[in-house]
Amino acid sequence: MSDALTYLSYMWPAYVAYIINVATPGPANFAIIGTSISQGRHAGLIMALGIACGSFTWACAAALGLAALLRSYAIGLEILKVLGGLYLIYLAWKAYKSARLPDSKAAIGNLSTNYTARQLWLRGYAIHVTNPKAIFAWLAIISLGLPENAPTAAILLIIGVCISSSLMIFIGYAMVFSTPHALRGYKAARRWIEGTMAIVYSAAGLKLLTSRI
């Protein structure tokens, strides 16, 4: 571990960039916020865990060199890009339909939803693991945060610190937006919030579908 600590001067810029990216509102954070407000803290935490696991998957892929393999077989990334874009469009459609529901029919604050813990985790995981942009983000982090031929301990350190920090941020979103105050605010502006989520998901999905890998 002492060898890994000698690389901290390289890791800090990558870590700061990663934290800014994770903390900035996007499809993943909106999913945690929406789930926490409408379905409660427990559901929000499971969603956060699924998203963090998706990030960890890409982190391991980048560290193991699988990213280079995927780049050699561009069709694999293209398939992921299409799947990720379509999934975000699907989430946008779900948010749009929910926004159109009258308050009397909306499951606001209903802790006994139809979603199981496994479904919530998979939904969070799918949001992140179907986004090929995430693997390029991790490639940038490892490239920026570690020089060539860095020891395994240094790679494990930067991945561990980044994933732990992102999990704390995701959990923070789930905790903050599952409070009674957040629920009251959500009830007052539910349609606006879910309409905004539909727009965010649509924009992210269309951007993913039309972008070049």
What is the first-to-last residue Cα distance? 36 Å
Radius of gyration: 18 Å
Give the rounded overall mean pLDDT: 78
Q: Regions with pLDDT < 50 over 5+ consecutive residues?
A: 108-112
Task: Please state roughly what percent of the residues sit in beta strands, choosing from under 5%, 5-15%, 15-25%, 25-35%, 35-45% or over 45%.
Answer: under 5%
Helix content: over 70%
Please state the structural category: mainly alpha
Could you give the order of the helices and strands? HHHHHHHHHHH
Number of helices: 11
What topology emerges from the helices and strands here?
Elements: H1 2-5, H2 8-23, H3 27-39, H4 41-63, H5 66-72, H6 74-100, H7 117-129, H8 133-145, H9 152-176, H10 180-188, H11 190-210
Helix pairs in contact: 2-8, 2-9, 3-4, 3-9, 3-11, 4-7, 4-8, 4-9, 6-7, 6-11
